[in-house]
Amino acid sequence: MATVAESRERVEPALKLNFYSHATLECGDIAFTRRFFEEFLGFETVQMADVSFWARLGGDQIIVVVKSPSKTKDAMPFLNHNGLDVETEAEVDAAYQIVLRDAEKWGLHKITKPVVQHGTYCFYFWDKDDNAWEILCNPKGGYSWGFALGDQQGAGHMSRKFQRPQSTLTKGS
User: What does the alpha-carbon distance between residue 123 and residue 114 come to, in Å, rounded to a whole number?
Assistant: First the structure.
């Protein structure tokens, strides 16, 4: 796949930002959701208020989890999902089995089967609060491999032919 990075000139950004620090998710029950983040997903958490906690996993970026002010909230659309990386495709399969096993306990639903798509092997599920999660196989550093490749032409990232890291090539090749 040919890169087009050499044809793009770097433009100086208008804003001088340092770091993408956080994203925010809503929940219905702070105590239950904090246990879900700690006991199921493996996040480190800190309670910041009666209605919120912070969660992090593997780095300094956090998820701020806030109790929803309304009784109902819309389900997170598929494209707005949260990605959780594992190193191997076998770990994706193992995580899938655990999600199926513990679905009732944690209110997990809309669990997809693992497939190769957008350059990796992955599956999706929604939690009790209708937040969407993806567990995917990525080498250490997550999607940094895409930046190392540069801009791509041809098959898009949803194609099975998309160029992806060697460590993620055993499934669906």
Answer: 4
